[in-house]
Amino acid sequence: MKRRHLLTAGTALMTSPLATPFLSAHAAETPGVTATEIKIGHTNPYSGPASSYSVIGKLHTAYWAMVSAQGGIAGRKINFISLDDVYSPPKTVEVVRRLVEQDEVAFLFNTLGTPTNSAIHRYVNQKKVPHLFIATGADKWGDYKNFPWTIGFQASYRTEAQIYTKYILREKPNAKIGILYQNDDFGKDYPAGVKDILGDNFDKKTVMVSYEPTDATIDSQITSLQASGADAFLCVAIPKFAAQAIRKVHDLGWKPLFVMSNVAISVGTVMVPAGPEKSIGMISTNYLKDSTDPRWVADPGMNEWRDFMNKHMPGADQTDLSYIYAYAVVKTMHRTLVQCGSDFSRENIMKQAANLKDLEVPVLLPGIKVNTSPTNFHPVKALQLIKWDGKTWVPYGDIIEGV
Question: Is residue 19 part of a domain?
Answer without folding.
Answer: yes
